[in-house]
Write a structure and sequence with these properties.
By secondary structure, this protein is α/β, with parallel strands linked by helices. About 35% of the residues lie in helices and about 15% in strands. The protein contains 7 helices and 7 strands.
Length: about 200
């Protein structure tokens, strides 16, 4: 299973571009991918998206960076080193998948990851229900963002800074693993104890 996080110049893969991609092979977590690229020629961007992902207008137009096609080819090569099944996991992974598919098409590559995915939000949500713990709420309904999910599994303070797509993927991988296994996964989080209610009684 591949935990993935992407950064984009907006929300529409038809006009916006993937500009960074991070991924962790969940069952071989030392096997990781991180890539940055400039946006494809003619792509649009919005400043709100850049504010969220931390890229500047200069960053996404930096000619010294790889092209989108070059980065996607690197990612596709890395995928071939990963364990199976290769199902994508992420926070709202449908956005990542939409941009991946668009990027694969631009690169002239066959997209082989299929349409199934696992949403971290759903995994954490169901664990809240399983344990009978009140789910965090906001004015729009249930609110389990990445920081809330990390807090739930024992990692206080939210995502390490500075943010990039790989730190996002690592955080998501750690959350998923702790919910699934009741164990730590990555060395970055070795000093954060697993929440007691997640510890496996059979281990």
């Amino acid at each position: 299973m591949i935990v993935i996080d992407g950064e984009f110049t907006g929300l529409d893969p038809n006009i916006h571009s993937l500009v960074s991609l991070g991924a962790v092979d969940l069952y071989n977590p030392d096997n990781q991918f991180y890539g940055e690229c400039r946006m494809w020629d003619g792509a649009s961007y919005n400043l709100e998206a850049l504010d969220i992902n931390g890229f500047s207008v200069d960053d996404i137009n930096d000619k010294s960076k790889k092209t989108l096609v070059e980065m996607i080819k690197d990612f596709d090569k890395w995928l071939k080193t990963c364990t199976t099944p290769q199902i994508l996991i992420g926070q709202n992974p449908m956005s990542d998948i939409a941009f991946l598919k668009s990027s694969y098409e631009k690169a002239g590559l066959e997209y082989t990851l299929g349409h199934r995915s696992i949403d971290m939000h759903t995994v954490v949500f169901m664990k809240y229900l399983d344990l009978g713990i009140n789910i965090p709420l906001d004015e729009y309904g249930y609110k389990i963002n990445l920081d809330k999910a990390m807090d739930f599994v024992g990692i206080k303070g939210g995502e390490p800074k500075p943010h990039n797509a790989l730190t996002g993927a690592k955080c998501e991988a750690e959350v998923i693993w702790r919910v699934m296994k009741g164990k730590k996964l990555l060395k970055e989080f070795k000093n954060n104890e697993v929440s007691e209610y997640l510890l496996r009684k059979d281990k």
